[in-house]
Amino acid sequence: MKPNKFILNRHNQTAWTISWITLLMLITGSVYAFTLVKSDPTGGSRAERKPLPVPPAQIQLWFSEDVNQANISLSVYAENGDQVTTAIPQVTENDPTSIILPLPPLAAGRYTVEYYVASRSGQSINSEYGFRVAEEENSSPEINTQTLIDTEALLNWAENTYAKHFPDHQITQSIEPWLFRHYPQTNIYAGVNTNDNNVYALGGPWGDNPVLIDTLPNLLVLIANSNNNGGNNSNNSTPTCDTTNAPSGLLYTQNNNIVNVTTNGQCIPFPKNTISAQ
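-> C-alpha cells emitted (278 positions)
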C-alpha cells in the first residue's frame, strides 16, 4: 500500500505544480500585456461629453512598452469620415513608449482616433477613441449699438464742455469692455465700461486709477438738460449733417464740423450710383 500512497502523493504534487505554473503564467501575462497607458487629448465617453475648448495641435499616445517604429499606424477622422491629416506618426525622441501625430487646425466637432501599434517584444494593440472640439467662443462680442451712440454723444459733449481736460477731438477706441478716448496733450482717458454701463476717467486730476464719474444714463440726462438750458453747445453754429438718404446701418455722431461715421463692425454695402463725378 505504501507504493500506491507514494504514487498518489507524487501525482497530487505534480498537479499542484502545474496549477501554480498556469496561475503564474496568467498573472505574468496580465501584468506585462501591451496596453495603452494614456492619451493626449484624452478620449472616451466622458471626454466626448466635455469638448476641448482649444483644438489639439497633436495626438500623443503612451504605451506600457517600447514601441516598434516600423509597425505603427495612427489616423484621425472627422465626423464626415475624412482623414484630417496624412502625416506619419513618429516615436517620441526622448520616450520610446510614446508616439506623436501632428495635426492641422481642427474645426469644432467630433473626431475619431484609430491606432495600431506593435511593441518591440512583438505584442500589438488595435483600438480607437473619440474626442470633441468645442465651438469657438466670440472673444469680441458686438458692442450694443445704442451704447456706442450714447458714448459718442457723451464724449463729444465732454470735449465741447471741458476742453481744458479733453483738448482736440479724438477718435473713440474699443478694447473690450471699454469704449474710450485718449487725449495725449493731457494724458487723460475718458470712456464707458460696457459691462456696467458706467463712465470713468483716468489721468490728470483723476489720478492713476479709473475713477467712476456716474452712470451713462445719468450723464445723458445731464447733457440733455444742458442743451435745453442753452449750455456750451449754444455757441456751436455748425449745421447738423443731413443723413436722411444715407445707407442704412451707418451710425453718425457730430462734434462741430467733425462727423464720425461707423458701421459698428458690420459691412454695409453702398447703393449703386451714389457717387458721381463733378
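The domain at 36-133 is CATH 2.60.40.1220 (Immunoglobulin-like).
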